[in-house]
């Protein structure tokens, strides 16, 4: 087996950034989901679940350590990494409430224009990380702005199996993985507890429960009229907590990942 694709999502719930190599820190892939859009009034996070046009928003880390935002019909904007004196904004992501640096008024104006309502852009530094979903993994596992865990792994064989059942080829990016594995049987990842990629070990902590976001075409932002592939997942991958596809991981060390690296199942 080998690592066949790497993706990070600098801005939560926006376009993927394909990678050939990347380093790991204590929150997963370096720079993954470290930025987030929030409603200006409530501080609640925004996602494609309710704001479909976020699928068309591209966010790329720039050479200065900040973010470059671009979208159809909008001029690109360079956003600096918030400094030590940046305003802290209270935000809510699922059950977590925390205070994180705001990216400033210019960034706020740009994202408000794109979203169509008052919106702010925030960033999470390492020292303000959240704890992962309780009941899984270790008590000291942390995550940035990803839903519950730092990393998501999907086997290419699992996608092919689902595509066959749906009756048409499906894009891997519908499922927003960080790590794609080639050479394993369909849903082999369901039985893994620990794996190694290159020199880094990972714990497989929880299956990923899928939502309506899987019905959004990552290229167009349009939802499928037939609710696929979620409808099929709900028929043959249903568990008590939902329709499962992919596995959430936590890295137990740091180092480099590169497409093509061998993947070894340790447990």
From TrEMBL:
Against InterPro entries, the record matches this protein to: MoCF_Sase_C (IPR005302), MOCOS_middle (IPR005303), Pyrv_Knase-like_insert_dom_sf (IPR011037)
Q: Residues in domain MOSC?
A: 119-266
GO molecular function annotations of the record: catalytic activity; molybdenum ion binding; pyridoxal phosphate binding
Protein name as catalogued: MOSC domain-containing protein
Which classification does the entry list for the species? Bacteria, Pseudomonadati, Pseudomonadota, Gammaproteobacteria, Pseudomonadales
């Amino acid at each position: 087996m080998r690592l066949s694709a790497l993706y990070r999502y600098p801005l939560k719930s926006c376009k993927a950034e394909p990678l050939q190599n990347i380093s790991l820190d204590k929150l997963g892939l370096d720079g993954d989901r470290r930025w987030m859009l929030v409603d200006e009034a409530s501080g609640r996070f925004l996602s494609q679940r309710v704001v479909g046009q976020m699928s068309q928003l591209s966010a790329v880390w720039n050479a200065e350590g900040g973010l470059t935002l671009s979208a159809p019909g909008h001029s690109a904007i360079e956003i600096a990494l918030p400094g030590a004196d940046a305003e802290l904004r209270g935000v809510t992501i699922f059950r977590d409430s925390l205070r994180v640096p705001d990216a400033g008024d210019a960034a706020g104006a740009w994202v408000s224009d794109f979203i169509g309502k008052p919106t702010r852009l925030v960033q999470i530094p390492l020292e303000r990380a959240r704890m992962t979903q309780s009941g899984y993994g270790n008590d000291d596992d942390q995550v940035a702005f990803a839903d519950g865990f730092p990393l998501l792994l999907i086997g290419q064989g699992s996608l092919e199996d689902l595509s066959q059942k749906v009756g048409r080829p499906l894009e891997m990016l519908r499922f927003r993985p960080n790590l794609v594995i080639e050479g394993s049987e369909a849903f082999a990842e369901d039985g893994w507890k620990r794996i190694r990629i290159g020199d880094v070990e990972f714990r497989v902590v929880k299956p990923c429960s899928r939502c309506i976001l899987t019905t959004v075409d990552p290229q167009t932002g349009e939802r499928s009229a037939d609710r696929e592939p979620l409808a099929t997942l709900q028929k043959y991958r249903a568990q008590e907590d939902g329709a499962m596809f992919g596995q959430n991981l936590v890295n137990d060390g740091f180092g480099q990942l590169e497409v093509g690296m061998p993947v070894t199942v340790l447990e």
